[in-house]
Each structure stands twice: as structure tokens, then as C-alpha cells.
Write a structure and sequence with these properties.
eight-stranded mixed sheet; about 290 residues; Immunoglobulin-like; four-stranded antiparallel sheet
Length: about 290
Amino acid sequence: MIKWKIRRQITALPGESLAIKMAPMVGLFFLISIASLFGQDEPQRVYMYLDYLQSNENKYLIAEIKYREDGTFYQIADEEISFWQTTDTSELELGRGKTEKNGKIKLLLDPQKAIWDTSGLADFEARYAGNENFRSAGRSVTIKEIELTLAGTVEDSINTLQISGVEKLAGDSKDIEEVEIGIFVKRLFSDLPIKQGDMEEGSLSIEFPSDLPGDEQGNLLVIARITEHDDFGTVETSQNIQWGVPAKIVRGERPRALWSRAPIWIIFAVSAVFLAAWFHYFLSISKLFNLRKL
């Protein structure tokens, strides 16, 4: 009872009741301001992706960086990324460059620098140093080196694709097993999927359709591709094969456009009309001057 009276007397002191009541609110506002200030200065988290692509004889590393804001991902452009090959005892820089508008950078591997060990493995890494707006990031991938070949044969008037693949080891090779191969035909905007199958004992045979349109000679760019494999990455090989239906291109005169050169007779006719109009215009002005002199 005595403590309650003392508390009541303190809260009832003149000039202090408003300050005591506002103190918690002012403190809360101050803490929120400090938290928001630090939250704005904190760099954004960066999401990095690293892929390996082998296209015929060329090998590439493809890195991508992006950040997330309000549930949406945005690509980070014009930022430098370095590529490395790492081992247990050393690391070698393979190259560096800046990302494009889509947040990606593609590095062609130098065969003199990118080296696979005796077990056919290579460890690659992409690194982003970050800045005041974005955190640093890195991503690594381990790839097995393989060789993929494609050949076309005709048996009993049936077009057949022969695909073979082996893992490349130190002085030896090993047939690829249970790997899905997709067959595509190169088109203007995207590759046209044809068929797919699983490779067994390092080989796969697929019947190819004979009714696909090709160029004027019937050529088709046929692609055999392993897509985003855990051990091999993306590996593809391509070959021009004359199995398409030749395209019939009619080269005729195009319809006359607005900016096309007009025929000579139209130019003379329009010029004559304008000359006649201007002649009558000056004739009328001269007669008006003659009337003023009368």
C-alpha cells in the first residue's frame, strides 16, 4: 500500500507526467530509425550460378549473378567475375570479365590452362568480390571430361543417327552408361526437339524423320545434347546432314513500297502539273498588277 502511494505521487508530479508517458514511444521510434538505417546500408545477398558447356571442341564456363528483392530476382550487370581452376594444393586463374545485361558471362576455356587430372576430373570455381551494394559470392563445379560424336547413316532408306560417348581418362577411355541424349535441329529462335533416348554401352541409335524442312539444299544442323548432367554438365555435338526437304524460295519482285523510286512517267506527270499550277499562279499575279496601272 505504501509503495502504491509513492508511485501514484511520482506519476502525478506536475510537468513530468507527459515526459514519462512519451519516453517509451520516443525510445521505440529511435530504435526503429537506427534499425532501418542499418538495414538500408547492408549489402544485398547475391545468388550465383555456374554451368559448364562443351560444344564440339570448345569448352565454356557460364556464370550468372542475381539478387532478390520483394520476392523477385533481378540480374546484376556490369560486375566483374573471375574464373579459377582449383586443386588440393594450388589454384590457377583462367580468366575474368564483366557480366552482361542478363547477368551472365561466358568464358571460353583455354586448353593450355584447363587441365583434367588422371581420373578425368577438373574443379572449376567462379568468384564475385562484391561491393558496397552486393555481397561477395562464389560457386564451384566438378566436371568429368567426355567425348561425344555424331554420325548419320542410311539403312534401307531409313535415316539413322549414331551417337557415341566415352569418358576420357589418362591414356584410356570408358563407355558412358545410362545417360539421356536429346536430338535437336537448329532453328532460328530455338532448337527443335526431335527425339531422345538413353545411351547404353557408350552408343545410341535413333531413327531420324525425313520430312523436316531444310535449306535450299536440304541441309539440317543436327545436334546431340546431354543437358545439365551432374557429372558432365551440358555437352553437345553437331553436324550438317542433308536429310531435310529442300526449301523452295521464290525470288520475285517485291511490292512497291512508299519509299521506292517512282516510275519516270509519274515523275514527269507530277512535274507538269506543278509547272502548270505555278504558271497560272504567276499569270494571275501579273494581271493584277496590270489592273492597278489602268
